[in-house]
Amino acid sequence: MMRPIARTATLPALLLVAALVPLAGNDFHIALGISILMYATLAIAWGLFAGPTKYIGLATAAFFGVGAYTVGLLYEKVPMLALYPLAAVIAALLALIVGLTTLRIQGMYFTIFTFGLAELIRQLMTWYQRNVTGSVGLYIITDITARQIYWALTVLLGLTLLAGWLLARSRYGLALLMIGEDEVAARHSGVRTTAVKVLTLAGTSAIMAVTGAIVAPRWTYLDPNIAFNPTLSFMPAVIALLGGMQRFWGPLAGAIPLVILFDQLNARFPTAYTLILGLLFMAIVFVIPNGILGLLPKIERKRMAEARLTTPAASTLSEPLAPAMPARSATPSIDGISGPVGKLSSHGSTLLEVRSLRKTFGGIVAVDDLSFEIREGEVFGIIGPNGSGKTTVLNLISGLYQPDRGEIVFVGHKITGKAPEEIARLGIARTFQLVRIYPALTCLDHVTPAALFAGHARSLSDAREQARQLLEELGMAAYVHVPAGQLNFIDQKRLELARALALRPKLLLLDEWLAGLNPSEMLIGMELIESLRGRGMTIVLIEHLMQAVRRLCDRCIVMSFGQKIAEGLPGEVLRDREVVRVYLGEADDA
Ligand SMILES: Nc1ncnc2c1ncn2[C@@H]1O[C@H](COP(=O)(O)OP(=O)(O)OP(=O)(O)O)[C@@H](O)[C@H]1O
């Protein structure tokens, strides 16, 4: 295996070799080199956003064209060196607008929208040229040589690679990965997903625009069909897919063979060029979905196999959960993670107040005029038949849904209307009814961001250390570097809990956390919740298992058709005639 220093030096060495090509090569080599550098830069910039987030945009042509036109329209009035940052700023502003309006949509809709955007800008530019300048295109006559363009692109490619390298090592890189894996869970870990997405989109769009600005003088004549050519949107995507996006430099591996191939195809079959591009796109997706990187002798797979070897047999818990949790005399860091201690018997002041909450979905009233309050240090149960509105209440508290009416007050502050990431940062953590993990990320990468984005860590490495400790406390030391997708069910649940605890919540929302566990796992799970309560954690527990409600909850409410039909001590509530009628008759398995 390559040593880290040798690995890190490979890319700068390659760039250095590339920079020497114009000195030795002829015009053809330089022209081909410009194409390779241009597409490699565009593809890497595209992959920096699309790779981790899985938002497949097709607007590269729009940003590239903006850069080219910035030069085309202004090169006679503004110094060339000032045009590059100007192109970057214009593209970044455009991306900010696009991002803020489109990044709430996902999947195919985002792809179609971005493609439409590129077409819209091309049409607007065509209209502008015809009606304002009175021409179809414009000429760019400069004394910039092909060699200079080549070298400028080499520098830009180097900077783009550097940006990718830094991003992959930063908290934002981790946030982007989480967004790609599960955006809802990422928000509940305190990640400001919209800001992260919009800023990354703006940054990568700026790189695309500077590429266009550098290449523009090469064409001499520019019109919208050249500058905003849809091929400029498709090619980077095809290149990135061919190269592979597991690493930020992956598209580089796709750029060289593809650009040479297309140069040949374009020369020999100019009319069938785009058809072949489309077929190739499909072939890559079917034959090598992970790109060239995925075919390499698998540093990644080897690492994962090693991790698996160190993983204990997976069918059940390797270590009991509750004993793995420290008692109240835990180390200071654990105390911090677990929230306020020593409130067990006091059940002090009101931590959360839900006032007249209502939430409808179309004609369905999921939560109807619901009010209750939760006191510090208590375990508060929410029970009720299927569809009675329990999860909706949790979703309203955690900010995933906004209520139609009513308000939620947390430690004296109204949190209604706040986004999940803000509520998570304020100290409300949750798990999900259907476990939400990031299958491709390691357990450490699951837990680290919560510590980081909630502001409890001084640095990424500090957050990693906190996450490692927390995983150890939950009996998951052997899984620290194991991808979450390889964990069994109970361990995925523990991982979700670890991620929630890393926020050091004041309030923990557990949505049927015990569901799906076998009887022995259930006992261990209950001990774990008890140990959290023993350390003063305030917990809201949605639970169908009455045995668990009786054992764990200090107080509970019962919901039916969105309304609260009973409230009080579990023993009393579970004897209530109305409760027995709507719920327990069908569901008590105690
Ligand atoms: N996003 C949504 N869109 C439409 N309807 C929804 C949505 N979320 C919940 N509902 C509806 O609201 C009602 C309450 O659902 P909710 O999931 O809150 O119930 P629950 O008590 O948690 O049920 P369960 O115990 O089965 O999880 C149901 O009728 C459900 O179909």
Automatic annotation (TrEMBL):
Name of the protein in question: ABC transporter, ATP-binding protein
Pfam entry (one): BPD_transp_2
Main location: membrane
InterPro entries associated with the record: AAA+_ATPase, ABC_AA/LPS_Transport, ABC_transp_permease, ABC_transporter-like_ATP-bd, BCA_ABC_TP_C, LivM-like, P-loop_NTPase
Residues passing through the membrane, by range: 30-49, 56-75, 81-100, 107-128, 148-168, 198-220, 248-267, 273-296
Annotated SMART domains: AAA
Domain ABC transporter positions: 352-586
PROSITE patterns noted in UniProt: ABC_TRANSPORTER_2
UniProt GO cellular component terms: plasma membrane
Naturally occurring in which organism (per UniProt): Thermomicrobium roseum (strain ATCC 27502 / DSM 5159 / P-2)
Subcellular location: Cell membrane
Protein origin, superkingdom: Bacteria
Membrane-topology descriptor: Multi-pass membrane protein
Keywords recorded for this protein, A-Z: ATP-binding, Cell membrane, Membrane, Nucleotide-binding, Transmembrane, Transmembrane helix, Transport
GO molecular function, one term: L-phenylalanine transmembrane transporter activity
Signal peptide range in chain numbering: none
Classification via PANTHER family: AMINO ACID ABC TRANSPORTER ATP-BINDING PROTEIN, CONSERVED COMPONENT OF ABC TRANSPORTER FOR NATURAL AMINO ACIDS-RELATED
Gene3D superfamilies, per database record: P-loop containing nucleotide triphosphate hydrolases
One BP term from GO: L-valine import across plasma membrane
